[in-house]
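Hi Y.,

Following your request, here is the sequence exactly as I used it, all 115 residues.
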Amino acid sequence: MNERGRIRVQPPLNVVAIRSGQYWANAQTEQKTDYLERRQPKLSRGMKYLEENKEASGCLSVRVMSNLNAAGDELPETSTLAYFLSLSHMEDCPNRTRRYLPTRDRHESEIRCQA
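Below is the corresponding structure, written out as tokens. Let me know if you'd prefer a different format.
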């Protein structure tokens, strides 16, 4: 910590940031149901896996954010921001996580790593 009370962090070279956005306000009923019942839970499990298995995945940080309206109510849109040690770690995420997932979830590993 320096004299102003700030902490300076020197990240490793080649850190990669990736951001994804999910927006389902204008989706038709079938698409919205598919997203909310099938895809969003998989995405949430994947982000939880990255958060809990940073060393295995090479993910330094993952943050899932919900957008809010002026009253503080959640809107039907989210975004995810993740940092990986390198592009190689991010690209290899499906292969790395597959080793750590239960057999029934292995087919979902690619979806899990789309941050």
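The longest helix spans residues 29-52.

Thanks again,
Q.
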